[in-house]
Amino acid sequence: MSGVQDQLEIKFRLTDGSDIGPKSFSAATSVATLKENVLAQWPKEKENGPKTVKDVKLISAGKILENNRTIGECRSPLCDIPGGVTTMHVVVQPPSSDKEKKVASQPKQNKCVCVIL
């Protein structure tokens, strides 16, 4: 019976309200592996999809999941329903480009105009 409890049914809710899954995962599966799965199953017809795993953030029970943790460590007892499906929200946040970083790192210059009459 413990082997069944170590499996979690997870579906991934995309920002447009559509879902990927549900699919069964072991409780020992890392969050990084879940992100790779989302990346591989991302619908090709959807615009602004993630390019890399770094572009994907998974949210479960109101918490952003860290790549180095397992889903067994991250799951909330409040969300565990025997035989139920856990929904994780997917946020796509591509890293900012180098141009944006350069602009952000430049100090803002205040322009002051003085007129002496």
Automatic annotation (TrEMBL):
Stored InterPro entries: MUB (IPR017000), Ubiquitin-like_dom (IPR000626), Ubiquitin-like_domsf (IPR029071), UBL3-like (IPR040015), UBL3-like_ubiquitin_dom (IPR039540)
Subcellular location: Cell membrane
Keyword tags: Cell membrane, Lipoprotein, Membrane, Methylation, Palmitate, Prenylation
A cellular component annotation (GO) from this entry: plasma membrane
Domain Ubiquitin-like: 8-74
Topology with respect to the bilayer: Lipid-anchor
Principal location listed in the UniProt entry: membrane
Function: May serve as docking site to facilitate the association of other proteins to the plasma membrane.
Protein name, per record: Membrane-anchored ubiquitin-fold protein
